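Worked example 3 (structure in, sequence out).
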């Protein structure tokens, strides 16, 4: 069974006309407040948006046996997805209304194995630079004790919606 942190969440996408009318920070904050649905990918991996401020976004997630690779640890895609989400959203939180982004590249370093008994993990993304066409951010995944499991950077393409 997947460890959904918030079973009451609804999942979906933000209507395009509404997304276009909001700044990135307003949009992400409304997802956090439950005014917009959580993205479907969060349901797949059981993580939730837990904090947002301009230039900083945190997701939390509980690793599960369902995410294991054949060698007995959580597949790297779990950490990669959490990092892509927190880093991309940290860039998004700095964008004006009518602007979107997509990930151009991510670089991730996996430092230690994640197991189902690792406990709750936090993925924190912080924007480094956000311009008119390109944004960059860094991210870290830590456990409740602050132990680092993975970190990364991203480059995002910024474009008009």
């Amino acid at each position: 069974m997947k460890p959904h942190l918030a079973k009451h969440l609804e999942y979906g996408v933000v209507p395009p006309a509404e997304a276009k009318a909001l700044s990135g920070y307003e949009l992400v904050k409304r997802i956090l407040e439950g005014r917009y649905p959580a993205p479907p990918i969060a349901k797949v991996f059981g993580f939730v948006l837990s904090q947002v401020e301009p230039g900083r976004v945190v997701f939390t997630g509980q690793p599960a046996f369902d995410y294991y690779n054949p060698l007995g640890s959580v597949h790297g895609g779990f950490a990669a997805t959490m990092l892509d989400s927190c880093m991309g959203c940290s860039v998004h939180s700095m964008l004006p209304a009518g602007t979107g982004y997509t990930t151009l590249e991510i670089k991730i370093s996996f430092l230690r194995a994640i197991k189902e008994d690792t406990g709750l993990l936090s993925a924190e993304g912080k924007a480094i630079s956000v311009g008119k066409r390109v944004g960059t951010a860094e991210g870290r995944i830590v456990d409740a004790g602050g132990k680092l499991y993975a970190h990364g950077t991203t480059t995002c393409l910024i474009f008009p919606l």
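Notes: The chain is about 25% helix and 35% strand. Residues 28 and 99 are 13 Å apart (CA to CA).
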